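Need tokens for this chain, all 328 residues.
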Amino acid sequence: MTNNLNWQGASDAINNAGTILLVTHIDPDGDAIGSLLGLANALRARGKTVDAVVDGGVPASLQFLPGAETVLSSLTQGEWDVMVSLDSSDEPRTGEAGVYGRAHSRLVINVDHHPTNTGFGDLHLVMPEAVSTTEIVLAWLRHMGQEITPDIARPLLTGLVTDTRGFRTSNVRASTLGEAQRLMEAGASLTEVTQRVLDSHPYELIELWKYALPSVTLQGAVISGVITQEDLRRAGADEKTNGDMVSLLNSVTQAMIAVVFREKANGDIEISLRSKPGYDVSQVAFSLGGGGHRQAAGATIPGPLEAARERVMPLLQAAAREGSLVIS
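Here are the structure tokens for all 328 residues:
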């Protein structure tokens, strides 16, 4: 999807709204929660009545962000003038909260940076060239003349850091660093955010990796690993334990594409994909019903594990053959 930016229409809808619902995607990462809380804190500062929700609530690793305690974990009642969907490439990604919110909101604004965005909603702020949804939220707040306070800056910087893996992805521009500088000047600590979202893991994660790493194999330029329900049980970990094992695999010199197959309790297989610059995993994810970016994407498909591997690995091998390492 190309840029679809209705700044004025979206701003007018917010300014005219009395009640606003903010929703982000299931299994939220730093960009999802960062954009949710950055916008929620800003709109509350503007005097708006705001409900923010994500299925299951805010992950423990992101509860340091201001306003995290106000985020609902489910929706069972309410009516809103405007619903804002954040960092979600399609409607199913917004989970049960999105289903309820769309049915009880007069208008939906779609704010996202995924190239695979399906264009749902009534008004759009979709910018695939943005490194994170928080970057779009920051531009939107600037358009509305909103002062960026520390409570707004900290979540927005968290999204920038998370989705660029510490400003290391190939879509980082000079302007990205400029935005980070402005958020730091507004009161966000880059040291704090980086430490909390990139360099902080529970011990259960190390136990999980201990059981999962023996499954790792390198086939040509594609490296893969598996996390089973038995691995989670032995490690004392739960479904929400997520240490980005796929990024660890992607750091292997010989690998251009990395994948981790994670067995869910219901038997589905969650697929996490990463790639080196020049290799595109987003189209593989999209073909499987998922989405994401060229270097980071994912999908969930039916199990069992071996069937999922047999379905996905040939697609990744083809993507590896079509790619070419780019270092700039």
